[in-house]
Amino acid sequence: MPELRYDPFRVRWTVIATERGRRPSDYIVKREDIQMKACPFCYGHEDKTPPEVFVIAPPERKPNQEGWEVRVVPNKYPALRIEGELVREGVGYFDKISGIGAHEVIIESPWHEKNLPDLPVEHIKKVLIAYKERILDLRKDNRFRYILIFKNYGKEAGASLSHPHSQLIATPMIPTVVVTELQASREHYKRKERCLLCDIMRQELAFGERIVFENDNYVVWEPFASSFPFETWLVPKKHLHDFALLDDAELDELALVLKDMLLRIKKVLNDPPYNMVLHTAPTPHARPGRPDYWETLEYDYHWHIELIPRITKIAGFEWGSGLYINPTPPEEAARYLKEVDIEF
Amino acid sequence: MPELRYDPFRVRWTVIATERGRRPSDYIVKREDIQMKACPFCYGHEDKTPPEVFVIAPPERKPNQEGWEVRVVPNKYPALRIEGELVREGVGYFDKISGIGAHEVIIESPWHEKNLPDLPVEHIKKVLIAYKERILDLRKDNRFRYILIFKNYGKEAGASLSHPHSQLIATPMIPTVVVTELQASREHYKRKERCLLCDIMRQELAFGERIVFENDNYVVWEPFASSFPFETWLVPKKHLHDFALLDDAELDELALVLKDMLLRIKKVLNDPPYNMVLHTAPTPHARPGRPDYWETLEYDYHWHIELIPRITKIAGFEWGSGLYINPTPPEEAARYLKEVDIEF
């Protein structure tokens, strides 16, 4: 008998097809090659991108030359624009906001063929530092209410360039998915004076069956109501709303746990395309009294990372219902991911 | 300058990339063939499916033999099961419901190669009658709170068989996307004593620039905050919450308008894969006082059909934010769809 499962944090139901229980080898993992002449993210092509806005490089290196380790540049084809005035306007029953924002590319390393889990832990930490520094810098701009960092790996997951990179989009409103999590967290906090994700984490640790990895400071698990097979969350044990508040030691350990998680996904699912998203608190620029202002943010929200392998199709049912059908129970996915041997 | 646009009915923002303005020919429309030996939906293979639960056929035809015009059968691999007890259970902070439901396939015609818009209007009406009759029948089962009818056309849109068919899934809870629309509609009704979608329709008709087609009883338009390029809605002018209340004359005309809409999409986008979803009221089996009970349903909800061509990829940004990036403004999409010559 399949099960309908409800996630109180994302306010969403999923159908878990417990009987079918598709194994990793049952998924046809497609990885179409992305063809291109010259990669604009490789050494020597620094002039093919807009000038860098952040870089990790030796002090003697000149800007926009080779020699860097992590490089952040504006997206050449931005979804939202940094220049211009932020105008909020009503159009009858509709609303519109001028498309002000930032759209940046975090080039994770100079190595075209090395993906995030293939990099040394120390290098992964540098990518995380780039995430943090860009968030801190863009927050100074009071037009932005949210800064979303995500990674599309593989063409099937939406990547248009194969050189490993993450992306950042700053928006003048808080995106719906984040609002839903924030509202659920706030409601829980109002009732219990506890963080919802902290409570869910304690429960997952007690149940145990969906845990992939745990150390002193982080937990990796498959959520109870996983929308996708092998959906995986990386959650810090310490209650903290804001990723950008992580200190050096915390980033060190996060890099290690992230590498571990990505290596498991890569090995179990044969290097699948995936999307990874950093869920963190909004910027402090919303106004008190407005629906996107969260007074108790530091108490009720809890930053984390969500990853979904893109090995199933999203069809009319999912689009029309918001209800996903997941053919691999998270308990089984956790077992595969936990038991696999990975080499660091 | 791109625009962020808000849809008060679906409670969702979209980025409309007004500058790029991708034309239909800019989209690479993929249509991978679905290979199979013998089609279980063609004449002579009636024993390859579970026995039919509804059929439109001449009276002399025997059940589960050829000679039918529209045939509805249970899905051989159902996402939810019809047999069993409906159990609602708490699991700590989570909820679960046994996977009770119905999952049926509406085989639209015996013609393997003829898709919905290629059928005569009179035959399309028979498909709509099948939708209506299955909704009315399944509503008698008080375990079901919602009956979702949808169509995946093309492998890229999630179809696993190429013989034209729609699907139906009955669920023991109201799916999230529907709840969001219902809540927004109810809020609007509470304030104004008017239907939100009626108000939006009047406004779209006044603006005119997103209208694709209009006759006495139906309007087809591109929504202001279209999440996808060429997203298209078909909305009845008459306020009615429930598709299954349509009478014979209304179904006649709906068949005509639906054919018109699908032919336009097919011609402008070169026969793209798409998802189509019927949005209609929940069944009457929710309980008063519960969050999924809508006392004023017949006043505030408004049935309609939504269609999205699957010509763009859903990536990490969309998944992590709920915010879609649409590279073709709906005003331009409407112009293409309106101006195209179609042959009935």
UniProtKB/TrEMBL annotation, chains A, B:
The keyword Nucleus does not apply. One of its GO terms (molecular function) is zinc ion binding. Residues 4-175 form the Galactose-1-phosphate uridyl transferase N-terminal domain. It comes from candidate division WOR-3 bacterium. CDD domains: GalT. The lineage of its organism: Bacteria, Bacteria division WOR-3. Belongs to the galactose-1-phosphate uridylyltransferase type 1 family. The keyword Cytoplasm does not apply. Its EC number is 2.7.7.12. Zn(2+) binds at residues 39, 42, 112, 163. The active site is at 165 (tele-ump-histidine intermediate). GO terms for biological process: galactose metabolic process. Its cofactor is Zn(2+). Binds 1 zinc ion per subunit. Residues 187-306 form the Galactose-1-phosphate uridyl transferase C-terminal domain. This is Galactose-1-phosphate uridylyltransferase. Keywords: Carbohydrate metabolism, Metal-binding, Nucleotidyltransferase, Transferase, Zinc.
